[in-house]
Amino acid sequence: MDRVTWRTQVLANHLHRSSASSALTANPCVGFSPPELTERFEFETKEMRKLLDHHNLEERDWLFGLMRQSKLFNPKEAGDGRVFVSPDYNQSMEQQREMTMKRIAYLLDRGVFRGWLTEKGVEAELRKFAFQEVAAIYDHSLSVKIGVHFFLWGGAILFFGTKRHHDKWLRDTENYAIKGCFAMSELGHGSNVRGIETVTTYDSKTGEFVINTPCESAQKYWIGGAANHATHTIVFSQLIISGTNQGVHAFIAQIRDGNGNICPNIRIADCGHKIGLNGVDNGRIWFDNVRIPRENLLNSVADVSTEGQYLSAIKNPDQRFAAFMAPLTSGRVTIATSAIYTAKISLAIAIRYSLTRRAFSVTPNGPEVLLLDYPSHQHRLLPLLAKTYAMTFAANHLKMIYVRRTPESSKTIHVVSSAFKATLTWHNMRTLQECREACGGQGLKTENRIGNLKGEFDVQSTFEGDNNVLMQQVSKALLAEFITAQKRSKPFKALGLEHMNKPCPVIPSHLTSSTLQSIEFQVI
Q1: Does residue 515 have a pLDDT over 90?
Q2: E strands, 184-242, where?
Q3: How far is CA 113 from CA 45, 60, 122, 282, 329, in A?
């Protein structure tokens, strides 16, 4: 019997016990001696990479090659000729911000961002995701800075705007002729977007909107790119027309001129040093009756006529707000995928370390034992490795349903992206902590990356939606789907609830080892 078949049978035995006896028996894997210790073996790493990276492998390698060629990315040659790149987190906040912009300029000059907003189709979107994932593997600040400009600022124009906005802004955004940011969060409101306090009114005499920050809690806060570099921003604000609040809408506002000078009636402050992401210049913005053209309202969902009449085909305010929020799922998709790549990095470091570091010997004067040969160390890292594999395939599935989205799938994408964003980022932070501890003192060194990655990626638990709030939204959506299906006496068809169409397994009062190891029990 070959090794793969034998291992498959052992794994299957964990789930399906052929014996009807309830007695616990010794498992063959307990006394298993891995053949890797004594035998040569072959493993097709390229084939595994195809499964894990899933798409655009050549483009990913091309971008990694660009990074290795430039001193901006701190290339270091290993003894075996391989070249590694990693950011220098020992730089000051100002230096990290400067380096982030230099790296973006380097990638821009080499055509990395070509077509990110002006090309359409599944292939174009997957290529953009692949490049963004490569940037996140190298440095979270770089990927966030790029993501804010393209996915948030550019995505808002693409999805919230119409042809007039696309023609005016997308090409300049793609070429970085303008630098965009995304002013949604406020000091007093983060997850509760509907409660934001920034106010915009319409002046029919001049044909302009007037944006105002009425109180300190209405200041835009944590706005990536605002502190130093952004020239324009998408402002989310309550729209007041003829004394009636029409809800949250999005507007384009210029905050700096071409020379980097802050525009009149706008005040900007730096959010300061953070536990991570110091290559991103997060800032605060106040608007003092800032006037913008009527055409700067992103009007795919609603518009205001020159006379000041509010126009929208969606009359229900709740449905209108949902239409505004639907396109923002791309941010959750990129966060989920980058979290899994970070978990892979930390596991690769920790497992490789455990295959070189030895501690204690079994016999007097005997050789010390590799860390990974200890069952306790295996229990720390290998379940996280298995989950990371599974979550990689989940993240790839999320990307595919996103790039193939239709109006009918928007609800499913919202629920799945919310669930995956929370689940995968929580998994990443747990993995980073376990890997840091598994490396002992070496995990503290900045050159070994894990400690810095904890600070860099901790923010993923709260930005683009607080994880706990997102999971509450997911629970609400699933319960609503369950109730609707029950009322209509129809089977579930979406949101991962299809397994509930099957009869619920009966759990016996006396749990046996066979029951505990069955697939049906594990699903419950």
Answers
A1: no
A2: 199-203, 208-212, 220-224, 232-241
A3: 29, 13, 16, 23, 21
What is Dmax (Cα atoms) for the chain?
92
- Contact (Cβ atoms closer than 8 angstroms) between residue 502 and residue 459: no
Average pLDDT over the chain, rounded to an integer: 89
Residue 71, helix vs strand vs coil: helix
219 in Cβ contact with 198 (< 8 Å): no
Distance between CA atoms of 484 and 487, rounded to whole angstroms? Answer: 5
Lookup: tokens for 47:
């084939």
- What are the DSSP E strand ranges found in 322-444? 358-361, 368-370
Share of the chain above pLDDT 90, in %: 69
pLDDT in tens, 397-408: 999 999 999 888
Dist. CA 226–CA 282, nearest whole Å = 6
Tell me if residue 424 falls in helix, strand or coil.
helix
Q: How far apart are CA 256 and CA 263, in angstroms?
A: 5
Evaluate if residue 382 carries a pLDDT over 90. Answer: yes
* Residue carrying the six token digits 């006037």: 291
Q: How many Å apart are CA 139 and CA 456, to the nearest integer?
A: 9
- Coil, strand or helix: which one is 357? coil
> Could you give the strand order of the β-sheet that contains 220-224, starting from the edge strand earlier in sequence?
220-224, 282-287, 266-270
Q: State the Cα–Cα distance between residues 107 and 446, nearest whole angstrom.
A: 25
Tell me, what DSSP letter sits at residue 465?
S
Which amino acid does the sequence have at 114? R
H or E stretch covering 268: strand 266-270
Q: How confident is the model at residue 22 (pLDDT cuts 50, 70, 90)?
A: very low
What 3-state class would DSSP assign to 516?
A: helix
Q: Note every long-range contact of 493-501, with CB atoms under 8 Å and residues 24 or more positions apart, other chains counting.
A: 494/411, 494/412, 495/412, 495/415, 495/416, 496/416, 499/523
| C-alpha separations of 104 from 75, 108, 206, 251 in Å | 17, 6, 39, 26
> Tokens 């009966």 identify what position?
506
pLDDT band for 33, please (50, 70, 90 cuts).
Answer: low
Question: How far is it, in rounded angstroms, from Cα 483 to Cα 478?
Answer: 9
Phi, psi of 474 (to 5 degrees): -65, -45
Query: Is the pTM higher than 0.90?
Result: no
Strands 83-85 and 208-212 come out as unpaired
What is the bridge-based pairing of β-strands 208-212 and 290-293? antiparallel
For residues 329 and 326, what is the distance between their CA atoms, to the nearest angstrom?
6
Triad 204, 210, 213: Cα angle to 5°: 155
Q: What span, in angstroms and rounded, lies between the C-alpha atoms of 206 and 304?
A: 13
Region 29-56: mean pLDDT is 73
Stated as kind and residue range, the H or E segment containing 489 is none
Strand partners, 77: 83
